[in-house]
Design goal:
By secondary structure, the protein is an alpha/beta fold. The protein is built from 9 helices and 8 strands. It has one domain: P-loop containing nucleotide triphosphate hydrolases (Rossmann fold, 3-Layer(aba) Sandwich), CATH 3.40.50. A hairpin with a 2-residue loop joins strand 3 and strand 4. Bound molecules: 2'-deoxycytidine-5'-monophosphate. The site of 2'-deoxycytidine-5'-monophosphate has 14 residues, from helix 2, helix 4 and helix 8.
Length: 227
């Protein structure tokens, strides 16, 4: 019997997935799994290899990649072949290439298998693009977060400013629209709302409100499971 339920949180870039998923996991004492970070780790490895952006080249390097998610006082840390790359995977270069790299079928198969293994025992909050549709289509609770482009640009600009990255709102806007386009039109497991997912528009919600809403839905599911 599973220790807890699987909560899938999907949605486009900047919809508030990772912050919400992280806080929700803390509140429930569940494990938080950031699947975007896994795609970012593969992208970082590929960038360091200086290879062309071609499916064959990317598929060939996958056996050399080992990704590990660890939890310490700083929260979730991402390890690539033993190296802590939690900061490096957030670099603009990785952000620019992660969507095209994520379109490759071999990359998706490689990571989805690992995500299923990590989440198999339940008691997890997993965020991404295809969690409720492909990774865990039977997840007990599926949330699909959306927010207006303007709000997502505002959030991303704030995040980049805090990191000291200078970028114009127009550039951020174009990056977000382009990532949305690639993520939702790709052939293999595109970003889409699962039929049984609950859609929440976070444009006018605070993080606390988002977390609270999903927390109550989760508690309801957990209690139903027990009875
Ligand atoms: O959530 P994020 O911005 O860190 O995700 C980075 C990219 O990874 C995103 O643009 C598409 C890809 N991704 C994916 O294809 N499937 C997932 N489950 C998670 C992320």
């Amino acid at each position: 019997m599973k220790k807890g339920i699987i909560i899938a949180i999907d949605g486009p870039a900047g919809s508030g997935k990772s912050t919400t998923a992280k806080l929700l996991a803390q509140k429930l004492r569940y494990k938080y799994i950031d699947t975007g970070a896994m795609y970012r780790a593969v992208t970082l490895f590929w960038l360091r290899k200086n290879l062309p952006l071609e499916e064959k080249a990317v598929c060939q390097i996958l056996p050399e990649i080992s990704i590990d998610l660890q939890y310490n006082n700083n929260g979730l840390r991402i390890f690539l072949n033993g190296e802590d790359v939690s900061e490096a995977i957030r670099l603009p270069e990785v952000t620019n290439f992660v969507s095209p790299i994520s379109t490759f079928k071999c990359v998706r198969e490689f990571l989805v298998e690992q995500q299923r293994t990590i989440g198999a025992n339940g008691a997890v909050v997993m965020d991404g693009r295809d969690i409720g549709t492909v990774v865990f289509p039977k997840a007990e609770l599926k949330i699909y977060l959306v927010a207006s482009v303007e709000e997502r640009v505002r959030r991303r600009l704030l995040e980049l400013k805090q990191k000291g990255v200078a970028i114009s709102p127009e550039e951020v806007r174009m990056q977000i629209i382009e990532r949305d386009r690639i993520d939702s039109t790709r052939q293999h497991s595109p970003l889409q709302k699962a039929l049984d997912a609950i859609e929440i528009d976070t444009t006018n919600l605070t993080i606390e409100e988002q977390v609270e809403k999903i927390y109550h839905l989760a508690i309801e599911k957990i209690n139903n499971q027990k009875s």
